[in-house]
Amino acid sequence: MANDSDHTTPYRVAEMTWQEIEDALEETTTLLLPVGSTEQHGHHMPLGVDVYMPEAIGERVAESSPALLAPPIWYGVSPHHTFKPGTFTVSTETFQHYVFDICASAGEWGIENVLLLNGHYLAQDPELEIVVRRLREERGLEAFHVPLVNLFAEVAEEIRTAEVSFHASEFETSIMLELFPEFVHMDRAEAVDPPAESRPLTDYDALGENQVGWSLSAEDMTELTPTGNIGDPTVATAEKGEALVEAAVSGIRELVEDLESGNGSVAAP
């Protein structure tokens, strides 16, 4: 894939030779690993949203910051989305082992810092938190779980129009309109309101209290939404997406540059 920026040093691991990796490790020991899922995203967006977002954001970071971009992980923990065709899911145990082994193998050839750019945020946060802990304790890697929503939450709160944006709605649709407008069919988008009230710690909103939101089942989702999305994607815009993407890129870039400068241990975002 050709780069449109002035950054000519290769950074996409899958497109590099081992000699180029060896050379790159003299300049950076940081790896960006996009982690997502292939799952339904309503009537208006494709199954690959949760990978398209972190990979494109990671690419923008790697274009201008000292980091390598790994091939993304396309399959995640998505049992709650199997109520619509096209969704793939793996078990929690399989997912944890797979992500851990990928990162551990990178550590074997010189990577010291790993950022797990999570596009399937909320749903597989628990698994990735465990992976990060194991990588730090067992492999000595500076590993970080980086859910995209954590990076753009402040901006999202400021620019949001809809009261609720939980899945395939205002935030994700806006980001996709900014990054991959050709994949978004706004004429098919429909608003789906969640229940008027939710139990404590179970808000149906990406910026709400979602302490157990990851535990929804396929049966739960069937009752919640006929289309697959929860919230209002019709208010999404590319302008909102640009602001959200910029916030995410800025946050990741700051972490990368701090790690590469050798400032010591830093807190996860």
Automatic annotation (TrEMBL):
One GO MF term: hydrolase activity, acting on carbon-nitrogen (but not peptide) bonds, in linear amides
Cofactor(s) required for function per UniProt: Zn(2+)
GO terms of biological process kind: riboflavin biosynthetic process
Keywords, comma-separated and alphabetical: Hydrolase, Metal-binding, Zinc
Name of protein: Creatinine amidohydrolase
